[in-house]
Write a structure and sequence with these properties.
Elements lengths: L10 H11 L5 E2 L2 E2 L6 H12 L6 H12 L6 H16 L1
Length: about 90
């Protein structure tokens, strides 16, 4: 199963996931600091938001296509399935 990750345009989703996985240390003015390697991505996303672009629209389309093709996978879904299978085998 290919899943959503093989879809065209998944770079933004991967970048967002990379950013969310990094631990931000410290804060400035009550806001979390942005790692230097993430600043270009944040600036790009801000420009797109200010232009009125819906950053989630493409992702929603990809996920809907994958669901319709019964080819939607994500780590959380797989983890929950594995946990349920393990519980079923135990009891």
């Amino acid at each position: 199963m290919g899943g959503v990750q093989s879809s065209v345009g998944c770079e933004d989703a991967e970048n967002e996931r990379d950013m969310s996985e990094r631990k931000q240390e410290g804060s400035v003015g009550g806001r979390a600091s942005v790692a230097p390697e993430d600043r270009a991505l944040v600036a790009s996303m801000l420009r797109r938001l200010q232009a009125g672009e819906d950053l989630r629209e493409a992702m929603v389309r990809r996920v809907r296509r994958a669901i319709a093709a019964q080819d939607y996978e994500n780590p959380l879904k797989l983890e929950i399935t594995a946990d349920r299978m393990a519980e079923a085998l135990k009891g």
